[in-house]
Amino acid sequence: MKKLAVPFLLILILILAACGKAEGESGAAESEVSDTFTYESETGAVEVPTDPKRIIALTNGPNVLALEGNIVGIDEWTGMNSLFEEKLEGVEIVTEDNLEKIIELDPDLIIAGSHMKNLDKLGEIAPTVSFTWGKLDYLDQQVEIGKLLNKEEEAVSWAEDFQKRAAAIGDEIRAEIGEDATVSVIESGNKEFYVFGDNYARGTEILYQAMDLNMPAKVEELALEAGVYTFSSEVLPEFAGDYVIFSKNPDVDNSFTETDVWQNIPAVKNDHVFEINTKASTYSDPITLEYLLDFFEESFLTK
């Protein structure tokens, strides 16, 4: 019996060892698989990290910041936006042309615009996902970034909550200013002005989509479909609503505010002009939207 028992014991040990090894290999394989997942992008499936650690955002950086993504490279326009200054401390400014710099930053995920150059080369450096500006609305864009960063639930939760809060504040504003009151969003340029439709940042998505406030008829006619309309100072009164959100560009000459054309606009006379900084208002990400929602609530309801 002893002679039989020894070989049997050795066989049992070998079987258990093989099982343990197989389980270990299986566990390792599962761990390796869980490090990435397939994201369905505009251009097809892209294998991306489940938990990206070094993101280069050539576009949609603010959306990434809102989900606390770890950005190591950012575009110049986002980099000089005062709303993101603290979150971007130490982050490098890069473009799609700075391939050497991008390689040095060793990204594990690159987010780009579909219009950008070198997308193929970027894809050789790290998994690259491109988005077409304006293809998704401001809420769906945030949800899509949430999917990319494996934080879809968090993004959806924010979008649903923001819609509810903005709609409720919109109800209060309409009760305060009147259901028929109009609001226009006007921005200063070097020698021209811009008026915006309902999806061109500067708070337009909040005012016209979430809050359902009214545009002046001329703005609806010329800017709603196009998104933006350019005009000269002489016709400023034609585009000014009962209330004006003035997107003031600090880098241009704003002396027009001292002219009779501006001073005689009813919204100006009635102190119904609310000024925002162009540089801090040209995105439609959660950080910017929350900032502008607070601003609109305070401006319309506490005057």
From TrEMBL:
Its main location: other. Keywords: Signal, Transport. Residues 54-303 form the Fe/B12 periplasmic-binding domain. InterPro entries: ABC_transptr_periplasmic_BD (IPR002491), Bact_iron-sidero_bind (IPR051313). It comes from the Bacteria. Residues 1-24 form the signal peptide. This is Iron-hydroxamate ABC transporter substrate-binding protein. It is found in: Cell envelope. Belongs to the bacterial solute-binding protein 8 family.
